[in-house]
Amino acid sequence: SQKIEQNSEALNIQEGKTATLTCNYTNYSPAYLQWYRQDPGRGPVFLLLIRENEKEKRKERLKVTFDTTLKQSLFHITASQPADSATYLCALVTGTYKYIFGTGTRLKVLA
Amino acid sequence: EAQVTQNPRYLITVTGKKLTVTCSQNMNHEYMSWYRQDPGLGLRQIYYSMNVEVTDKGDVPEGYKVSRKEKRNFPLILESPSPNQTSLYFCASTPLKPTGPNTEAFFGQGTRLTVV
After folding, report:
1. Whose CA, among A7, A15, A31, B96, lies 20 to 30 Å from B53?
2. Is A43 within 8 Å of B109 when comparing Cβ atoms?
3. Least Cα separation, residue A26 to chain B (angstroms)
4. Predicted confidence (pLDDT) per residue in A65-110, tens digit
5. Which residues of chain B are within 8 Å of residue A49 when distances are taken between CB atoms?
6. Chain A residues whose beta carbon lies within 8 Å of the beta carbon of residue B90
7. Degrees, nearest 5: CA angle B101-B40-B65
8. DSSP for A78-108?
């Protein structure tokens, strides 16, 4: 069956360090992959999108990589801040335009 | 302001009593979808629509209906709610490019539904 896994349910890091979150998928050939941030009780907010023919995307302190051979995406937050504490979701969009979300990684940045 | 609006935000209902959760977007997006979010299971797509009168099943469509009579509205209908449909529901919209909905999805603020 189609499956997406985000490797950590929770991740604690010290302020200023780089947070690295992982998204692995099986049985897909996704056209692209997206990352979202979700705060408690709120809807997800889009952060970055990366296409299957792209290796890396950056936006300010955020970086996403996409390895279609490993079937894996890595999401990095550099110089992390307490305000970055949230749940981060990865999502694949299939060729038939269905969205498949991972269960999320809850990041806590410690001051 | 560009937004996706869901109503109601909170709803408690009884088993078997039909209900509708409304979703409206003001961005002229073609693609709209509904999700439910449950602890440990993440966001799961219920139904999606690529345009007016075009709807498709997501991963968990059982027990739900949708309609897309107008571009801006995509209501979620529970004909006979059951306690296992207690969840946090999100509606989202995305512009549909020729290569697919390959831009960001805009989410509503969520509807917390409890079925007793």
Report:
1. A31
2. yes
3. 16
4. 998 888 899 999 999 999 999 999 999 887 778 889 999 999 999 9
5. 102-104
6. 43-44
7. 50
8. SS--GGG-EEEEEEEE-TT--EEE---EEEE
CA distance B78 to chain A (A): 21
The pLDDT tens digits of the residues spanning A18-76 come to: 999 999 988 777 778 899 999 998 999 999 998 888 889 999 999 999 988 888 999 99
- Are A90 and A64 in contact, with CB atoms under 8 Å apart? no
Compute the distance between CA of residue B65 and CA of residue B81 in angstroms, rounded to an integer: 11
Inspect the interface and report whether the beta carbons of B110 and A43 lie closer than 8 Å.
yes
Tokens of A7: 């490797």
Q: Determine, for residues B107 and A100 on separate chains, whether the beta-carbon distance falls below 8 Å.
A: no
Q: Is B44 in Cβ contact with A43 (below 8 Å)? A: no
d(C-alpha B64, C-alpha B54), whole Å? 16
Distance CA A5, CA A14 (A): 24
